[in-house]
Amino acid sequence: MQLSIKKTVRIVGIILLAISTILIITFSFLDFSSGTSSLIKNDKIAHSIAYTSLGFSLFLTLVHLPAFMQARKERKSGDGTLLFLSHNTKAISISVIAGSIFGLIIELLQPFFDRNCDYLDFIADFLGVVLGIAIGIILLDIFLVLVMDKSVWYDVMHETEQKH
């Protein structure tokens, strides 16, 4: 039995989501005050990296590929806009909101584990989620170029060229 592209992307997203969630929860409640590397000491970078993986995996779990791919096959080139993004505004929105709420909950729970609640950590979490989603969009674009010979940005570039 061969998995569809949609199911494969979703399974990869779910696996990465489970791994990143477990790692974030584990490391968010450990005490790194003594004998740690400089990366962990600069915890804004660690927050951004962790939540980039969370945003990426959330987006992969929620992305809506089949309608986009079917629509791409059926329509003429240049007659649409960023169909991929328009079909995925819900996935993008849910990923940003869920990732941000998760980061906020973690920050609010940290004082119960002798850690500090820091609004700058939450900002790093939020920016990481957004970066992860952007990476997901870029990697899916590359993937779709390889599979379908056209970028998700093709229509916009093609439309712009026709207008000039």
From TrEMBL:
Q: Does the keyword Transmembrane helix apply?
A: yes
Q: Which species does the entry assign this protein to? A: Bullifex porci
Describe the location of the VanZ-like domain by residue ranges: 45-138
- Superkingdom of the source? Bacteria
Task: Name the InterPro entries on file.
Answer: VanZ-like
- Taken from the record, one Pfam family name reads VanZ
Protein name (Swiss-Prot/TrEMBL): VanZ-like domain-containing protein
Transmembrane region(s): 12-30, 50-69, 81-106, 126-147
The answer to whether UniProt assigns keyword Transmembrane helix to this entry is: yes
Keyword annotations for this protein? Answer: Membrane, Transmembrane, Transmembrane helix
